[in-house]
Amino acid sequence: MSELPQISNPLEFFLFNGRAIGPQLHLILWGLGLLCIDFLIPKDKGRVGAFFAVGGILMASLHLYWLWGQSLASAFYGMITLDAFALFFDMLFLVAAFLAVLMSYRYMEVEEEQGGEYYALILFATSGMMFMAGAVDLVSLFIGLELMSISTYILVGFLKRSKRSNEASMKYFLLGAFSSGVILYGMSLLYGLSGSTNLDEIASRVSGLQDPTLLTLSLFMMMAGLCFKIAAVPFHMWVPDAYEGAPTSITAYMSVAVKAAAFAIFIRIFFVAFSDLREVDTLVLALIAMITITWGNVAAITQQNIKRLLAYSSISHAGFVLMGIVAGTQSGVTAAALYLLAYTFMNLGIWAVVILLRRQDIAGERLEDFDGLFFKHPAIAVLMLVFFLSLAGIPPLAGFIAKYFVFAAVLEVVFAEAGPNTSILVWLAVVAALNVVVSLYYYFRFVVAMFIKKDYLPAPLSFSGGLIVVLVITGILTVLIGIYPQPFIELARAASESLI
Amino acid sequence: MSFFMDNILTIVCFFPLLGVALILVWPRGKEHDGSIKWIANGVALAGFFISLPLITEFNDARFIDSESGMRFAFKADWIPAIGAQFSLGIDGISMLLILLTTLLGFISILSSWTAITERVREYYCYFLLLQVGMLGVFMALDFFLFYVFWEVMLVPMYFIIGVWGGPRRLYAAIKFFLYTLAGSVLLLLGILALYFFHHSVTGIWSFDVLAMQQLDIPLNLQIWIFLAMFLGFAIKVPMFPFHTWLPDAHVEAPTAGSVILAAILLKMGTYGFVRFSLPILPEATMHFLYPLLVLTVIGIIYGALVAMMQKDMKKLVAYSSVSHLGFCMMGVFVATPVALEGGILQMINHGISTGALFLIVGVLYERRHTRMIADFGGLSGIMPVYATVFLIMTLSSIGMPTLNGFIGEFMVLQGVFADSTYRLWAVWAAVGIVLGAAYMLWLYQRVMFGELEHEENQNLPDLNWREMATFVPLIILAFWIGLYPKVFLEYLHEPVNQIVERVRPNQFSPLPAQVALRE
Prior knowledge:
- The complex is a heterodimer of chains A (500) and B (519).
- Chain A contains 20 helices and two strands.
- With 500 residues, chain A is mainly α.
- Chain A has a domain of 226 residues.
- In chain A, helix 2 packs antiparallel against helix 3, helix 4 packs antiparallel against helix 5 and helix 11 packs antiparallel against helix 14.
- With 519 residues, chain B is mainly alpha-helical.
- Chain B is 71% helix and 3% strand.
- At the A-B interface, helix 17, helix 18 and helix 20 of A face helix 7, helix 8 and helix 9 of B.
């Protein structure tokens, strides 16, 4: 990687750094542009905003692709890094945003809340995530986090006339702001201890610390705040309500992208800054992962509403990703990255079907709404089955490969070292494996409804071109990652290699 | 032709997908159900025929892997990042099971001709998909690939029970799925443990089953891996006390589903023990031999006693499976050459006779829509052909000499007796045979003999040509194995000797394996 060249004049400085954050800039500028022209778009042509946003995302993707070949090391004097880890997550966020926008426009028409600012906010949130993924400095990290969080608070409450949506937004905002505060407190302790905000410098300065009490306290503060963002038990209380109340397209986007962004900084902070406290955080995180997986699954069993069910299932999936972090090795990071990638496609696919079922006057969220779907729309039902099986982790689908990798990462640690934490890692693997069975049970309640129950709601589904594109892309990738995972594993491996 | 023979395992394994593809593109509508049946039956029958070269060319030197002795081996990289390969290959054990699968697959599809009237298209799709999964399990020589096939077949089987089953079908289907899955995920952890151990010894990331069979694993680790794999396989077999899903699944499944479940799916569990647990973890198997034998004996006797008390014919046959598979497993675990070979032969025998018994129950069910023993009686006068078939299969199941069951049971008993330590366990197993004769003959007596008390049974039609066609191959095989088992046992000598040498080295003289290789 080429180091930052010596830059003397300001113009050169801006050109160089502007290139490095080009994708983010694209998103922000296109978002601002959308806000400017929004009043020109007639109310019944709301879709124009969506296509405008897609344009921004595609431009950002092109720029990202170009950056990939450039191997720039960092920008803004080490505030932002462009390592493979950051680029991997950038790509993931752009894909998620692209799919989320495509599945949104028809849905927002059904909800009668079409507006340009909706798409602009998605673009802003995405750029915030990209800053998070690239941040190697506590300041840029927090700014990215807030840019993402604030945009999503608004998006969750976007259905202005729905009480549920307003309530969800309020809950999410209050708890989210609180958790940001906790993270910030942890950061301030860390800064006090090390005198630096750069993660690498922090790592080197705290490594010889004689009394690790404050460092541990800071670790737990950050851990608590980040566990809130990734929705790990016991910081998950907001998830079912927020996911249920938010517009479904935003729920889909949140469950994938916001979670992945939080994991990106989680991984970076714990693997770079806190690499000294590995033993403490392994133990605590292993327990959190175990409880998260189990609790998410157990709570999902009784849910009658698909949005709440998927909310709980996403909690348990976060636990699986945590297993990769618990492993604490390079294969652990590979597993977490691969899991998030696979999860992006299978989960967005399933949300796309939920959006499809939302028609005029029909919420399409209850278990009964899925009855007999197979007889009317066999292709949709089969796709849904594929997504469910993949989420549960049945081969040969993406979810199985992802689960295989987290299990392998955890067991590899057990085999590599006979450390103090190995027995808890074995238990973690066993508990997680048995949870696969539980998750299959509740997913299959919906499969039974779709394939075996007969009475079908007659109203036509809300098809749209964008939604079909989403279903095709997610369906193909869910199967492809399962059957031929090699290139995706290589991507995830490159990401983890650049970090450790 | 040479392309075909070079890739024969891949072709045999994925051939049913051709049928799935055809059925999917076939025009929709009720009036096309007939042609879909023809397609499915044709593909299944063709699948059987293209698997026949596996026997005829089995000893052709060109198709024998010189290192491992595996036949028709095929290897390609699949996921290089983790060392998983698409690796197929068979020995005598898997060859017989594959032939059994293609034959029983066709028979059960043929037996569904009139039984399945709703959602015909999907039904045959699921059946053909199931076939792919089962064949893959018996062919895979890569543990990762094996696991994929092992899990893949759960989904079609779930639907076969859940959509076309009896009144409690949903409960039975999900119970089947969850039980098996619970075992499989632990099996996966066991596979991973082997994978990492293999890497720590050799430095190679690989799931190669044959390489794992060469490992010397410390007993402590073997025990853990054995327990994990034991759960996976024992639930599938099913061994007592993991058998509770079986009666539910059998009773609720449609006839063809029961046939395939009993004849093939359960064999995947026993095959798992033979192929993986024994050769990879020999010391752990011997370590646990005592508790394992206790479980098999409980299975044999408990299964038989419960079967005796059943009022539902299908449930009776289901519990008889528990008993018979206990027999199988006893032979496998004791692992003296004769017992192991008998256990493997008994796997085939159980597939033939229990498969046929489920078909027999299905014939009556289709005519009367009841399976209660009390609803029948005195049928032998009205359905003479049916009575004959039923009798042959009953005798085969209870181990009457000249029929297949006798050979298998005799070999298991003889083999167990050969081991001086466990000699007396043969006595318990023999008790199981007596009980088996009791419940089967009593069943036959109550259904076939006596007065014809029910008016509705007066005009039951005898077997038609299609039903005969499903029974004839099974009857031929039953007599063939019963009268001249050498043909089948010959294929087993070589792999059995290898496994015994691994599990109990230098204790027994090997079976006389004389393979006449063709150049």
